[in-house]
Design brief:
The protein is built from 11 helices and 23 strands. By secondary structure, it is an alpha+beta fold. Strands 1, 4, 5, 8, 9, 10, 14, 15, 16, 19 and 23 form an 11-stranded mixed beta sheet that branches. Strands 6, 7, 11, 12 and 13 form a 5-stranded antiparallel beta sheet that branches. A hairpin with a 4-residue loop joins strand 8 and strand 9. The chain binds protoporphyrin IX containing FE. The site of protoporphyrin IX containing FE (HEM) has 28 residues, from helix 2, helix 7, strand 2 and helix 9.
Amino acid sequence: YIWPSPQLDALEAVRFDQLGFTVLPSSISLFVSPCNLFVFAGANSGRSDAADWIRTAYHDMATHNSTDGTGGLDASIRFPAERTRTENIGDGFANTIGIVFQVINRYVSMADAIALGVIFAVENCGGPEIPFRGGRTDADEPNAPGVPEPQENIDSHVASFARQGFTQTEMIGLVACGHTFGGVQHSVFPDIVNVLNDPTSTEDVAHFDSTFVTFDNNIATEYISGTTQNPLVVGFNDTTNSDKRIFGSDGNATMHSFADSPKLFASTCADLFARMVDTVPTGVKLTDVITPLPLKPASVDLVLNGDILQLSGFVRLWNMTEDPSRVVHMLWDDHAQGTGNTTMGFAGTSSATHGKHSAAWYGFNDTVPHSPIGLDPATGIKSLSFVVNGKLEDQGGLGFAVQDGYMLSATSCSMGNNPLTGRVDVAVRNGVNPTRVYLEMTNHDSVGRIVITEIDIPRPPQPVAADSAYSLWSLNMSDQNVVFLTFNIGAEIDGVKYSTTNLLRLNSFAPCSQ
Ligand code: HEM
């Protein structure tokens, strides 16, 4: 895709900027590093965040009805009315939601976060990379029930997976792929698992295979060799041996093929997990598969500070590690057919997918990467391009567009503390003439979804000059019912809505002069 695209930029970041230096406030990779981590109990609990996340996504998706298009991966599992059904017994769902929702923002839904949980768990714990699409929407009410339970017979399971959109062979695959992680807990299923008295499984979890925090085909090799301890295959209660009935339902052909080939198992699971997280209600349009941009600007921000236009930001170089001999330059075009350039400063490295991918980050300011560089407001800035060790990166000649039609003015100020009030000044470039300029406050609706509330900044009756190139539009926050202290600034220019990247904080502004 072409940068900038706010939603794709955000989805790409949450997918690929996992650990180390990133501009994101939080990543969930830490919770599956190491893969036996279970943040709700000590080591040796026998449980893992990774297993909870995979099971949660399946149970959220399993309500899908492929005939009428209802249900699917839409975060309906977050509703207590759905989560407390017998088919959703256990605390793994609440645990998952408590962690994976940390990455949601206006562009990344709760359902996208659940999908990312599966992808991060599998990829970081020995499994294949799974293609990620974004754009799921979050349900506004619980879905109809539909998660299979272990006491059902095989016909019922085949019918249930068919309703979800999976054939019998795919059912065998999906159950095996899921059950390479985790196990069954005594406290939740006392009719399936006894108290274990095992110091390495203090929550009495009988595991599906011997490597229960690792993605591998042991779920199949142990089943085929007859050494499996899977409580849904060799459990003392045959009524609940659902894995035994499912795995055996094609004469073990699929499980044999998985046992014979770890590669086939991994590629099948990558496909099936992708299908699982992409099973969404009809009408939801997912993005294309998100792939990392080879070079990506991030946190690009402009502030008008008197006679100086301050430009800050970073650029991420994908698939690169630290290299002191690398030289990175940023070039820009302005509104007066002029150009400028600067050397960029190394800021750090990030990694994704258990270190499989790495990226090197550079700040726009050579000496202090987080600090801005100063430009002339009169000439402004139109677009960026970069030169990495002599190679030009400009999105095939398009450049990386920067919107300097409006920005925060450093004259914005905060006042008092209780309630915190102040004034937001927005500098609008002369001649740009936006239809509207407004603050964007992030809020949640009655079912927890992020919604953006816009508060218009009135167009001044007479232009208020900020300098020769910009005029100020101001909003006195004491005039508003100020309940939000953080916001972005939006503007509608030539029919297109723009939004600043960085979240602004009223209490970070200088005090207003009385
Ligand atoms: C007929 C279909 C299925 C049945 C009857 C079934 C049954 C179960 C049961 C009874 C548990 C124990 C839960 C607990 O003790 O908290 C469990 C755990 C689990 N299931 Fe399934 N399952 C099915 C399909 C799937 C599928 C398709 C996936 C994923 C693709 C999946 C992923 C998991 C995972 C990862 C766990 C471990 C959870 C943990 O250890 O915290 N299951 N399953």
